[in-house]
Amino acid sequence: MYRRGQASAVGAVFLTLIVILLAALIARQIQVQTEVQKIASETANLRSGEGQLSLTLNYTYLSFSLGNVRNDTYSCIPSLTSATCIFPSSTYNGKHMLTLYFSAINVPNYYYNVTSNLYLSSNETVEATLYENNNETLIARGTYTLPANSPIVITSHFVNYTIIFSFSSPFRISIDFLNYTFQAYNLTGFYAKITNIGPSPTRLYGLWLLNSTYARRINTSTWLEPGASQTFSVNLPVSSISEIRAVTTTRINILRINIRPPAYTGAPGPGGGGGIYLPVFSIVSYNSSIAGPVGSRQRLVVTVQNTGNASGSAVVTVIDNNGNTVNSTTLSIPAGQTATATLTVTLPSSRGTYTWKINATNQATGKIDDTKTLLVVAKDIYLQSRGAVSLSSFDTLPSWTQDPAGSWSVSGGVLTGTDRSPAAKAGSIIYNASYIASGSLYLLVATQLSTTGHVHWGFILARDANNWVFAGIYTDTNSYYLEAYRVQSDRISGTASRSGSFTASGWAMLFAVYTPTSGGSSFTIQLYTAGGNFSYTASLSSSGLYPGLTVNDDEKKQYSRVFDNFIASTSDPRIITVTGLQQGWIVELYDQTGNLIARATADVSGKATLGVLASPITTNGKIVIKDASGNTIIQKTFTQVVGGDTYAYG
Amino acid sequence: MQGQAEVIGAVLLLVIAVALWAIAWNLFYPTYQQASQRLERERLLAEKGLREYILVERIYLKDGHICAWVTNTGDVQTELVSLYLNDTLAWSGYIDLKAGSSTEVCTSLTTKATYRVKACSYTNCFEVTDYVP
Fold it and tell me: Is A247 on the interface with B (CB under 8 A)?
């Protein structure tokens, strides 16, 4: 009974706890759902009515001008600060008449409409007729009666007009003030006003100004309440824009515009002209091609002639092969005159030949009056050919084939070979079996000279692990010799072909030219040391296949030799060639720490030959091309620059 | 003596009850905490999905390839992970987009045309129709 009570108590505790935690979870779940629903509702409400925008463009401005009044004998500019202009009548065929010509002094090049206000009075009640001057033709536009001694205002909408006054007796006209107000086209820019015409607040993120070749985004982050607006100032003529996009939270408002400026109006001189004129542009000279290093900035000179009958502005634009504007400038050119623009363009980042365009766009009409083709050559330094067929700087042990009896290891960036082969065997070898020599082969390796033991070391061309031909160095503990021999069945065959003895020390560059012949092969061996150079030529009755290295200790005392920077190449690894240069240009090769490795000047054929005997393999080598004055034209870093490489600039 | 035994019994009962609560708490509280954290994660994910918006403002040719200008017009930071042109995956990757910030994404497509452009985050995809001029 007591135990049942205990069990019930335990059960009650567990049950109570589960119920409490479950209740807490359910309460949290309900709270989360409520919060999410609230956010969903808020977001939906906010976004449902946003994004309805209207666009208003303002691309005109008011321009004011005084006017000039003249008759056949007298000219006057009436203004508020100057004296009144007084014109007396004359007698024509028994009538008293006065003809006055009115014109604006400063007329904008492009305007939509004009309002002229003429303040005048007469000492008699006279009749007046107003004529518009249209290409020297007078068109009657209105008649007026001027009451005696009572000033009136005559308003017209012509830049140039004539008023003929008449009366039965002599009279006098006093002109107090003549002014003009032009609604002019703004060539320098316009205002775009975006208004929220929707029922909800709208967030404006940006405004795109676009035409077929141009795009510009004006960034903003503005909340527009219903009815509110934001005005953007754009420093481009409105005629150059074909589309405006207003970016809101959930939509893009695409607003197409097609506004052309009014026709250019030739600014008339006082009292004359007023006809419609247009400029026309033609590209009369330009660079038909430009060339230079990739990514470099080049100058382009374009001369444009205005062959029209009015002055105007031409936008000279350079368009690349993708249709993007590279650069543009505006030229103001009087009729019949030429103007020259110098544009800086950046060449493509990849070498190649590209076709670009130069457009001359008439700002008055918005049309391209002339277009020319421009050939763009972007040049770069590139690896044209690599003669090296097998190489290693011995930073790591190359995965070449080794004689099982040999010992080859890499430490400190050099290869150490130790002859561990049994007595009477022909030494330890390592060779690259992935390349088969089929013709002449240049061999180059750095090695440290040592007279320890009776050791042969140098190049081999192996047929397999037991048969090869050797060309290299031999020491008898006193002197060095250059020598070559053949190995058959892991034994030296016959007598080694050996040079006279010499002495040297330190690191040396061992170089050999292997040439297969009908009866075997020949080696020309050269050793470059700090104390002098030595060479020897030997013929052997056998040839080899796979280039590599050997260490052969006659005494089998496991002597070692060290090597560095091995190259087997079909071209001379002692040099690097750079072509495509101009005579006198300088080519320099630097290692990754900025040390100059080699330097050469281009010959008459545009070729520079850099001697890299001492450093035939340069990791992260930088090739710098300079002009004859030492100015850097281009530079490029290559992962590995190897003796025998041919690079080209083009 | 009888009184002392009752006191000791009551104390023992209290100790047993507290011990039982402690055991029960250690058993069930981790489960409760996991469930609670899962709820919170789901809430955050749902909120991100509701508040985010990725808008493709325009598509255009650049260096011969079709590119898109994309802006995070939502209220929360999000990420752009893929872009589809006419339901074909044209770009995929990962670009963090803070609220209000924009990015340019270029695809390997080159043909000028009208496209249905779909920009996707991990949570949503947003579609517009635009043309490459």
Answer: yes
